[in-house]
Amino acid sequence: MDLSWLVRARWRLVGAWMWPAYVVLAVADGVIGHLLPVAGSSESVLGGIVAGLVLNLIGVAALARPGGLLLRRRRRDLPEAIARNYAGTACVVLVTLGFVALGTAHHATIVGDRAVMRDATARAAAWIGDHAPGPFRADASHLDTIVIQASALYRVCVTNPTGTRDYCVVVDERRPAARSVTPAGSESNETLARGMD
């Protein structure tokens, strides 16, 4: 009785991990990218999935065949397709581990930037509460903050009770607290951001 089909089926079952791993780990890359962005302060799950799919595809296309050849040097019993599959699966896993490592390394920067932004907003609220015209002081707890330069310059605005005018300040985190806030006009942050796009 010819059992070669059973041997082939066994190898297929054991070696067919690359494409399922490719799909599952691309979704994991999206979640990891959202929770631990590699760059910037945030990333959508969809953006992380797309980045994972592209990096996985590049890794599989570029490294699966050479990796499979190296693996067959150590394990001559592996069929070429299975060795290539194992190497491709390793590439996909390495991409996900890369997302985790880079995201974890960048996380401290994000936490630090958020703390600096909170401090800048608190400085602006205190200054607006002491120096802004009366209508703006009443709403000094509802501030709109944008980053001009991360960990250094922030523009903070408050709107009057009728919502018709803004009062804005720039906070320079590199200066001592008493001298870090300066008036910055009445153009809203939304208008300023549209002009910068």
Write the topology of this structure.
Elements (H helix, E strand, L loop, with lengths): L3 H12 L2 H18 L9 H30 L5 H52 L2 H4 L5 E7 L3 E7 L6 E7 L8 E3 L5 H8 L1
Helix pairs in contact: 1-4, 2-3, 2-4, 3-4
Stretches with pLDDT under 50, minimum 5 residues: none
Order of helices and strands: HHHHHEEEEH
The overall pLDDT, averaged over residues, is 82
Tally of structural domains: 2
Q: How far apart are the termini? A: 72 Å
Q: Tell me roughly what share of residues is in helical segments.
A: 55-70%
What's the gyration radius in Å?
27 Å
> Strand fraction band?
5-15%
Instruction: Enumerate the strands of the largest sheet in spatial order, edge to edge or round the barrel.
Output: 1-2-3-4
Per DSSP E runs of 2 or more residues, the count of β-strands stands at 4
Question: Judging from the principal axes of the Cα atoms, what is the shape?
Answer: rod-shaped
The number of helices is 6
Quaternary state of this entry equals single chain
Largest sheet: 4 strands, antiparallel
Structural class by secondary-structure content: alpha+beta
